[in-house]
Every structure is written in structure tokens, then in C-alpha cells.
Amino acid sequence: EVQLVQSGAEVKMPGESLRISCKGSGYSFSSSWISWVRQLPGKGLEWMGKIDPSDSAVRYSPSFQGQVTISVDTSISTAYLQWGSLKASDTAMYYCARSPLVAAIDDWGQGTLVSVSS
Amino acid sequence: DIQMTQSPSTLSASVGDRVTITCRASQSINTWLAWYQQKPGKAPKVLISKASSLKSGVPSRFSGSGSGTEFTLTISSLQPDDFATYYCQHYDSYFQAFGQGTKVEIK
Lengths: 118, 107
What we know:
The complex is a heterodimer.
Chain A: E1 3-6, E2 10-12, E3 18-25, E4 33-39, E5 45-52, E6 57-60, E7 69-73, E8 78-83, E9 92-99, E10 107-108, E11 112-116
Parallel strand pairs in A: 2-11
Antiparallel strand pairs in A: 1-3, 3-8, 4-5, 4-9, 5-6, 7-8, 9-10, 9-11
Chain B: E1 4-7, E2 10-13, E3 19-25, E4 33-38, E5 45-49, E6 53-54, E7 62-67, E8 70-75, E9 85-91, E10 96-98, E11 102-106
Parallel strand pairs in B: 2-11
Antiparallel strand pairs in B: 1-3, 3-8, 4-5, 4-9, 5-6, 7-8, 9-10, 9-11
């Protein structure tokens, strides 16, 4: 069974850094892209970017380019989403998601809630 | 960037109704389009890929059509479990984008 297990909820202050994780299992980790998707409270889904674990190539949505960093550690089948300096507007649910290359998203993580407040 | 626009934003319907949601792309995307269903507090679930291919395990009352810039998701007979928010998504080798969502509410 394919599983994407995300790290737990985070409560941070503005200006702090953060890295959240997504561990894949039940499939060949390098064979599928991992995307990150943001959902602001009560709002829709926003694609942030994706990484190809086979070569660590990353594509960002223009809306998120320069705001976050997506990376991967294939030795532990884990993808990451990282912020250097959080803002209150980063408060959201963040999902990782798996798609077999050029295909729709087949599997989703359970989501990581990030709360940023002073 | 390719923009995806869904309509309507909210749809009120009754059990048994035929429901249609439209998704328009700002430029041609061939059939690189998926539909997802999301219920409150849950991750989305894929219903349809490649514009019209029903994913395994998805009830046959769901169907998708379209190509180029205009796409539709149809629920032939709305069931109680179908009240949720639906999103279209364009995907390709470089980029993905979601529509803003359509909430299907009980009339």
C-alpha cells in the first residue's frame, strides 16, 4: 500500500525557519514526482511545486518561487518543504502528493498544519 | 502561466440531480486535466485523469469530458456522499495548477 506520512503540526513565530517532511513507502520512491500543495484556511488548493526524486530536479509555481525550498533525501524516501523566514500568511495546511511522472496525483499525505503567529 | 477557472463556485442540488461543473483553461492543455473531490478535513481524492479516464474504484456516476480549453465533470445522479468540493487540475511535465473549486451543497 502506498503511503505518504507527513510530519506533525507546527506552531511558529514570524521570522522563524521551518522544514516539514513527507516520507513515502509502498512504492519505488524515485519513480514518482512529489508535489507540495497549500490550502489556506477555508480556501482552495494551490500547487507550490514538485520534485523528481530520481534527479532532484525541482519546478516551482511562479507564486512560490523564492518563497520556499523543496528538496528530497532518497536514502530515507523523504521529501521536504522548507521556509527560511515564516510569515503569518504562511498559516495553512500543507499536503505532499505523489504522481507517477506526467500523471494526476494518485496519493496524498495526511497534511501538516503550519500556524504562524506572534 | 496557465490559469484554470471553474464555474460555478457553489452549486446547490438535491439527491438524484444531474450536476455539471465546468473548468476552463487559459490556453489549450490537450487532455492534461484531472478532477478531485475533497471533503472537509480530508485530503483530496482523484476521480478522473486525462480529462475522461475514471480512476479505479470511483463510481460510474462520475464522468469527465472535454479537451483543449473547456472541460466538464458530470455527476449523473447526485448521492449523499457526493456533497463535497470539487477541483480541476492541469498537470504536465513542468507545471500544475488547480481551479478555485466548486462546492456542491445540499439544496
